[in-house]
Design goal:
Length: about 45
């Protein structure tokens, strides 16, 4: 339960876009982020 309290809910936005796009690079473009930044966010999940 403690882990859920520490979860950055903004990471879920990245996950949502990734699931919609099925591609990290396209998700990064849609989020106006770099691909490595999106990958780091996914690792945090």
């Amino acid at each position: 339960m403690n882990n859920l309290r520490r979860l950055d809910l903004n990471l879920l936005v990245t996950l949502d876009v990734l699931l919609a796009e099925h591609n990290v690079t396209r998700a990064a473009e849609k989020l106006n982020m770099s691909q490595p930044s999106v990958s780091v966010q996914l690792q945090k999940l």
